Amino acid sequence: MSKKLAGRVAVITGGSRGLGRAMAVALAEQGAQIALVGRDQAALDESVRQVEAAGSAASVHTADVSNETDVARLGEEIAAKYGKVQLLINNAGVNLRKNLDEFTLAEWKYVQEANVNSVFLVSRAMIPLMRGQGYGRILMMTSIMSHVSLAGRTAYSTSKTALLGMIRALALELASEGITVNGISPGPFATEMNTPLMNDPEKNAQFLAKLPVGRWGDPAEVGALAAFLCGPDAGFITGTDILIDGGWTAS
């Protein structure tokens, strides 16, 4: 079976665990070379092992993607190693759960910088490496919290909703280059971040009650969607956001 991403280079932020790692493995299975970006060296090394087990090569790039200096260095590293990039997944992000009037300005800025400014910085650094090839894919990890929300998610929902506007505008800017720009909005997935919720019977039941399919998502399902959107069969999909939420937003 041919690998649809063979010869492609994918830069994945937040690639050290969870959905980032799952997407890295899925793209590797389709032949992409993976540049993993994150801050946890040991976790990144484990992602490398899993990417290599999937049959592809990976490199590790430690950076704080909300820091302009770090991202400039990242761009130089990627250019020196690969020359060109075809795939970019902006996956890194954070969440602080509290009511709006409990936030300090520093905490509010922290969420926006990690979830919005980082996407701007990394995209700005990588787009010049993507132009001129007639093919490119940019994915932004949004969230169901950009379509619906919950109490205590004001900062997070604000940041993820901002990405929807960025997706639409950037898709128009890059369409003539053959570069598509799309979002993936995951619902509850069985990742390390959600383990405490899954292990709490009451909170777990509350989440499952919102999921018509009756289960948490498997990270590999996001990986499969990302691999499709990065592939040649998704060239007519751009400027939109795809929900993968077990029916949460439909109920």
Q: Helix amount, in percent?
A: 40-55%
Order of helices and strands: EHEHEHEHEHEHHHE
- The tally of strands reads 7
- Unreliable stretches covering 5 or more consecutive residues: none
- Report the sheet-strand fraction: 15-25%
CATH homologous superfamily, by name? NAD(P)-binding Rossmann-like Domain
Q: What count of domains describes the coordinates? A: 1
Estimated radius of gyration: 17 Å
Structural class: alpha/beta
Explain what the structure shows:
The model has no long low-confidence stretch (mean pLDDT 96). The chain has 251 residues and is of the alpha/beta class. A 7-stranded parallel beta sheet has the order 3-2-1-4-5-6-7, sandwiched between helices. Helices cover 45% and strands 16% of the residues. Strand 1 (9-13), helix 1 and strand 2 form a beta-alpha-beta unit. Helix 4 runs parallel beside helix 5 (154-174). The chain has one domain (9-189, 218-244): NAD(P)-binding Rossmann-like Domain (Rossmann fold).
